[in-house]
Amino acid sequence: MANNSSSRSRQKPNLLVTGTPGTGKTTMASALAEAAQLRHINVGDLVRAKNLHDGWDDELDCYVINEDLVCDELEDMMTQGGNIVDYHGCDFFPERWFDCVVVLQTENSILYDRLKNRGYSDAKLKNNIECEVFQMLLEEAKESYREEIVVALKSNSVEDMSHNVETLTDWVHSWSTTSL
């Protein structure tokens, strides 16, 4: 994880936590926000609360987010810094926003059970497992952001999450002290 010199006008870094649904993004981002004293922004919740979508996708059983509206809504907060953005996609966010992009990855058998327990339809389950098998979100992150800020972290267990939160909290504190 590298520091982004163009973001040095902010006192705290911005992180993106991404990964296939069921990898623990929201749980980890929430724990990290508390530990590192950052703001947690769950994009799915924001889309629902502010109607930043173009309707409902019956096949995928989710809102079709309006990426431009989401970016417009987040711009001022991201400029201030100190945010953890939590979303399963990442290629539409401006690169300048993030100092670290975390891609959570989960073993397929564990992910399958998590998604099945959420009541995902067979089609949605298959789509998300394939996404994880082919590491589509890691590839999307590597194509969308500088390689030195993209980090893949294992997210199979509570122990993994605790380790990830500790590692990232240390990074946030290090980033904040070196930016002063």
Automatic annotation (TrEMBL):
Q: Enumerate the subcellular locations listed in this protein's record, separating them with semicolons.
A: Cytoplasm; Nucleus; Plastid
Q: What is its EC number?
A: 2.7.4.3
MF annotations from Gene Ontology: AMP kinase activity; ATP binding; ATP hydrolysis activity
Q: Name one Pfam family in it.
A: AAA_18
Q: Does the keyword Nucleotide-binding apply?
A: yes
Q: What class of enzyme is it?
A: transferase
- Kindly give the InterPro entries that the UniProt entry links to this protein: Adenyl_kinase_AK6, P-loop_NTPase
The processes (GO biological process) annotated in the record are: ribosomal small subunit biogenesis; rRNA processing
Chief place of localization? cytoplasm
Q: Which PANTHER family match?
A: ADENYLATE KINASE ISOENZYME 6, POS9-ACTIVATING FACTOR FAP7-RELATED
Give the protein family: Belongs to the adenylate kinase family. AK6 subfamily.
Function (record text): Broad-specificity nucleoside monophosphate (NMP) kinase that catalyzes the reversible transfer of the terminal phosphate group between nucleoside triphosphates and monophosphates. Has also ATPase activity. Involved in the late cytoplasmic maturation steps of the 40S ribosomal particles, specifically 18S rRNA maturation. While NMP activity is not required for ribosome maturation, ATPase activity is. Associates transiently with small ribosomal subunit protein uS11. ATP hydrolysis breaks the interaction with uS11.
Q: Tell me the protein's name.
A: Adenylate kinase isoenzyme 6 homolog
Report the source organism.
Cuscuta campestris
User: Which lineage ranks, top first, belong to the organism behind this chain?
Assistant: Eukaryota, Viridiplantae, Streptophyta, Embryophyta, Tracheophyta
